[in-house]
Amino acid sequence: MPSVADFGNLLGFALYLIGGALCAISAVWIAARGDTDRPDHRGLIGALGLTALWCLVVAALGPLSLPALCVEIGRNLAWIFVLFRLFALDGRHQTLKPMRAVIIVLTFVELLQFGLLFVAQRWAITLELNELVFQVSAMFHIMVAVGALVLLHNLYVGATSTARPMLRWSAGGLAALWAFDLHFFTAAYIGGTIPQELVIIRGLVVGLIAVPLAVGSKRSYALMRLKPSRSVTFQSLSLLAIGAYLLLMAGIAQSLSALGGDLGRLAQVGFIFIAVVWSLLWLPSQRLRGWIRVTAIKHLFQHRYDYRAEWLRFTQTIGHGDRTREPLEERIVKALADITDSPSGLLLLPGENEGFELAAQWAWKTVEVPSDPLPAELIKLFEEKNFILDVDDVRKGIDQHGEAGLLPDWIRDEINAWAVVPLRHFDRITGVVVLTRPADPRRLDWEDFDLLKVVGQQLASYLAEQSGQEALMESARFDEFNRRIAFVMHDIKNLASQLSLLARNAERHAENPDFRADMLVTLRNSADKLNALLARLGRYGATNSENCEDIDLCTVARRVVSQYEGVHAVSLVRSEPAKVRADLEGLEQALVHLVQNAIDASDPGSPVYLDVSADGVRARIEVVDSGVGMSPEFIRTSLFKPFVSSKNGGFGIGAFEAREIVRAMGGRLQVDSREGLGTRFIVSFPLAAVAGFLNSSSPHKTAEVA
After folding, report:
1. Where is the Histidine kinase domain (predicted)?
2. Cα–Cα distance between 107 and 255 in angstroms, integer?
3. Percent of the chain with pLDDT over 90
4. Taking the CB of residue 703, how many other CB atoms lie within 10 A of it?
């Protein structure tokens, strides 16, 4: 059965053959297709030929045989010559005298290897002398490798801008060659023997190095640049980091074993245990992955973002809402957050009262957003300057556009708040996204600002498109509703006409005067009610501001309470004097809608309360119930949307009509509800005593006072 050593010899034999083949093929390719006017053309062919010969000799006779060692010296001299000729690529071989001295010294040191071989063959008859010769030879190899790397550094750094691209591949290949030799002979010098593992792979490494040297020999190929994708680079860097970590841990563990005895064994096992625990805690962490990603982007790429990948991910997030069942508002936040690796964010959209309100929270449930989250001045500044607000800069006192004094405290005090991104559609802000700090903290830079600004404009167009579609759908629903009402009005009008005709016929033909009188009263009352219904339906959606007069809210509240006597418990709990300018019938109709909604949401025995109060500027009437309540999502998206109803067979226009009636009279309708606790509708108007002052003020001042 073959031993491990036999397997290693067989593997080394195969790898040296492969390396020799690669070197030979590269030499033939350079001779046939390489640029013949390059100063290193012939030297490169000769060096690759000698390297191929060295690989074959090592495969046949072994790495420590005399022919293999002699060919290796010749190979190294050839590569030093190639390095010298590379300086001639831009004419520096004649102007840099210190460089010539270094080349001569390296050549001399390499030639000394022949003397060491002669000494080893003739006079190194003892083990001590053999070890001494080996140490000196390894030291000379290290000196040559270090000197060659220094020259390579000067070659590439000092090259002109036109010569440097042509040196990129050649210098990289030679750097890999001598870096491997430096590591190889350093390990041999420290260990006192040739490292067998490195001996096995040395032939393959040299063969692979021949490939970039061949690429660099042709000008058109030398200008190529390796452009790996960011994901491949990030994964490769992660693997390299993990590999380096494991090698470091193994090296330290081996060093601890040198303590000897039980103490060394205990120290080795304890260190390995600590290292494994540390790796399990930190290697999977998002913070470490973020640090690796940022480091790779900083040092390996010209730009931070892979714009193709970012755009594909952006369109994937925005365009697949049906699969994830996320509304567009949440997908907008997620699309922006994915770009900056932010773990969460929120979206603010224009509300009903000329301000902004919270529309979506994506993975950020801890933040407390006030009812009026952004001042109008900050929105105006976003519209004028079109910039991304860096919250950290504001915290540091940096104020570029005057935003520092306008940023609300709830964003400034929220430690996780990182960036405020306005969504600008033409010259109007259609939304604002607040992003949280990524797992690996960093400063926002120009590339972040440019990309977020462009993506924000795209998202703003999506919001504008959605708003237009909703308006069209609502208009279509209103048209359908109006058609239904037209049919209803036609039928009721016919019924009213028939009843009126019946009343006239009964008045003319009835023989019993008492019966006739009762029938007439009943019929006239029915006709009056139907005509009143027709009048109300005819006024549906109309503005009632022309019929406004000074009325007492307590009077309206009592009239509403009286309509529900014997039907449901509705009571007036407070009746402070509160006169406002409004239309009595319209306000009563709006309150009936709200009270009926409260009754529908409450248990049969649960009362509904009306509360009338005033604070010196505004008067309000509140409709309070302890029913099932409503969620914030339902209030924001469905409560005041026509034809959206939670009741079977409901039109879903009660709350909408009540709000529109109150608005038409200059009032305001607000709602406060908690699921399982109940709902409070608040209808408020300016007091009649101050209504004239408010009407005479500018619209901006009126809005501020309201």
Report:
1. 487-689
2. 37
3. 38
4. 14
Q: β-strand 570-575 against 608-614: which pairing, if any?
A: parallel
**Can you tell me the distance from the alpha carbon of 622 to that of 611, in angstroms, rounded to the nearest whole number?**
5
Evaluate whether residue 507 is within a structural domain: no
Q: DSSP letter at 642?
A: T
The two three-digit tokens of residue 524, written as one number: 């006239």
The neighbour count for residue 554, using CB atoms within 10 Å, is 19
Using DSSP, state whether 565 is helix, strand or coil: coil
Give 437's DSSP letter: P
Question: Which of 471, 487, 505 finishes a domain?
Answer: 471
Q: In whole angstroms, give the CA distance from residue 519 to residue 505.
A: 11
Question: In whole angstroms, what is the distance from residue 540 CA to residue 659 CA?
Answer: 13
The whole-number average pLDDT for the span 592-604 is 88
Q: Is pLDDT above 90 for 388? A: yes
Which tokens hold the place of 254? Answer: 């081996």
Amino acid at 77: L
How many CB atoms are located within 10 Å of the residue 449 CB? 15
pLDDT of residue 238: 59
pLDDT band (50, 70, 90) for residue 298: low
CA gap 384, 377 in Å, rounded: 11
Residue 515 falls inside a structural domain: no
Asked if residue 358 lies in contact with residue 372, where contact means CB atoms within 8 angstroms, the answer is no
Q: By three-state DSSP, how is residue 35 classified?
A: coil
Contact 141, 79 (CB under 8 A): no
The verdict on residue 530 lying in a domain is no
How high is the pLDDT of residue 94?
62
CB count within 10 Å of CB 142 equals 18
The whole model's pTM is what?
A: 0.48
Sequence-ordered list of residues with C-beta below 8 angstroms from that of 377, at least 6 positions apart, any chain: 406
- Compute the 3-state secondary structure of the chain and give helix, strand, coil in percent, each to the nearest 5: 65, 10, 25
Among residues 204, 159, 163, 199, the alpha carbon closest in space to that of 183 is found at: 199
| 50 within 8 A of 209, measured Cβ to Cβ | no
Together in a domain, 185 and 250: no
DSSP state string for 230-250: HHHHHHHHHHHHHHHHHHHHH
Residue 407's domain comprises: 307-471
Q: Can you name the residues that pair with 672 across neighbouring β-strands?
A: 680
The H or E element spanning position 551 is strand 549-552
Strands 608-614 and 579-582: unpaired
- In what side-by-side order are the strands of the sheet with 417-425? 356-362, 345-350, 428-436, 417-425, 389-390
Domain ends where: 263, 296, 329?
296
